[in-house]
């Protein structure tokens, strides 16, 4: 009988924000897989490090970070081969995922390759989005407020279609994720919409390297794991 | 010295989806508060039941479910008085919150009333949104896809302004939350947008009463704790 594939959300970075279910699956795992950027330590592995049994077999999935998607797709093909061998041998595989596996998570690439043939269980995790709201002391949404999540790359070259500008104007709460090298153009769009005063910048929420600042005081450069929260709702409880 | 107020997210319903941080805070709590709808058992308390110490003092916040906001605001005023008394006596108070405290959560009403005077820590939790995606086997968003979250009540009477219809047309992923009595009008709008085939209905994700169905096969009536996920993205990994 084939093993089961578990896609396990680890939350935003603080090991204490791992769920009890994820912790138990990791603690009793015989095979653990995780993404690692070529040449770097795996962030996912570091979040779960205190739970990984010494006896577990580890599969590091080396994913190249290129704008062209081809190389990453090949890397997921290779990872699927390695995971498949374990499942076929009857061993369960626990895949470690930063945040939530199905919310901008890389687990879905493995999921797509294996879902037709194997039993797969996805364990949801705390997203960086609500972790950022918590550390910023900023309730994201109440009652009938609309929340829109915009990955930063869509701001690049969007001057003509107006998509992000319309969202900034119309949505009650806007979450801009994955700032990285698009931080400048995002910042300019928020400024043009007159929303800089309502924008909060958060970097690496819930980790020792956490940064929380009004957008107007944010540094020039932002890492990939950073976001901006814009909450327009007036205090909705008064 | 005053106590600290903890707003603790419990996740979508499965006690195993409570984070380790939330579990530890609850296990050592001396005072625990939670919302309860008038005359009913508290859902939040039931999720955390196995963790609550027998010795803990419990504060049930009786919140009326009325369309008019006035009575609920009075209830939160009263709850704040009770919580304040504990904090002033130097005792920490752990408030149990379904899902995530700052994502359509009622904790923010208490937060607004007490944040100026007391130390408050918010512990994020797994949202029902990603839990629904997990049980539906439906990745919510990849790469640069835009996600919009629409509370169902905004569909009522929106024929004229076109807001929800525009979101259904333009957003890559649409999450419609809190269906309840607005299920009919939401369903009609999704049908009019030609998206019924891409819509999945989920009720009480991660609980023993979980329901996952294509929207076309969903029951006539939906509870408050239900949602629809519409994911338009083609398999983005192939």
Automatic annotation (TrEMBL), chains A, B:
Family annotation (CDD domains): Precorrin_2_C20_MT
Keywords per UniProt: Cobalamin biosynthesis, Methyltransferase, S-adenosyl-L-methionine, Transferase
UniProt xrefs under Gene3D superfamilies: Cobalt-precorrin-4 Transmethylase, Domain 1 (3.40.1010.10), Methyltransferase, Cobalt-precorrin-4 Transmethylase, Domain 2 (3.30.950.10)
Pathway: Cofactor biosynthesis; adenosylcobalamin biosynthesis
Domain of life where this protein originates: Bacteria
S-adenosyl-L-methionine recorded as keyword: yes
Tetrapyrrole methylase domain ranges (all copies): 4-213
Family the entry assigns: Belongs to the precorrin methyltransferase family.
Protein name stated in the entry: Tetrapyrrole methylase domain-containing protein
Organism of this sequence: Celeribacter arenosi
């Amino acid at each position: 009988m084939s093993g089961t594939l578990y896609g396990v959300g680890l939350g935003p970075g603080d090991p204490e924000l791992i769920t009890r279910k994820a912790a138990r699956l990791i603690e009793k795992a015989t095979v653990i897989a995780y993404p690692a950027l070529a040449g770097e330590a795996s962030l996912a592995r570091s979040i779960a490090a205190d739970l990984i049994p010494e006896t577990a077999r580890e599969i590091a999935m080396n994913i190249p970070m290129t704008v062209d998607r081809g190389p990453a797709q090949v890397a997921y093909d290779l990872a699927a081969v390695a995971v498949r061998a374990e499942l076929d041998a009857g061993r369960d595989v626990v895949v470690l995922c930063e945040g939530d596996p199905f919310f901008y998570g890389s687990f879905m690439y493995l999921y797509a390759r294996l879902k037709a043939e194997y039993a797969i269980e996805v364990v949801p995790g705390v997203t960086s989005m609500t972790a950022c709201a918590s550390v910023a002391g900023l309730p994201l949404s109440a009652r009938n407020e609309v929340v829109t999540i915009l990955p930063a790359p869509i701001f690049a070259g969007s001057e003509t279609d107006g998509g992000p500008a319309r969202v900034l104007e119309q949505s009650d709460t806007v979450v801009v994720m994955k700032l990285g090298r698009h931080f400048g153009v995002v910042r300019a769009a928020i400024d043009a919409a007159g929303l800089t005063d309502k924008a909060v910048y958060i970097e690496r929420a819930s980790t020792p390297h956490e940064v929380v600042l009004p957008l107007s005081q944010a540094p020039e450069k932002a890492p990939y794991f950073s976001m901006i929260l814009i909450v327009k709702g007036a205090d909705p409880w008064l």
